[in-house]
Design brief:
mainly alpha; 90 residues
Amino acid sequence: MKRFLAGLFFYFSLLAGYAQIVTPLESYPVFSANRRYQTARLSAEGDTLELPFFDDFANQPTGPVNLLYWQSGGGALVNNEFSISPPRRE
C-alpha cells in the first residue's frame, strides 16, 4: 500500500509539473479587441469630453447621497476615504 501511495504521489507531482509548460497563444484577443476599439473611436467624433474632466461628485461628503445629483430610486455610495489620494478639484 505504501508503494502504491508513493507511486501515486510521484505521478501527480509529474502531472503538476506538466501544467507549467509554456505554449504560444493561438490568437491574441486583446489586440483584436483593441483594434476594433480604435476603429470605432476614429468614427465617433463629438461624443467625448475634453480633459481634464472632473465630475460634480468629487466634493460629495461621505454619507448619504445628495438627492440633487441623483435620480430617485437610484444612486451610489460616494466615499472619499477608500483611496489613498482621491482626485478632487481644489
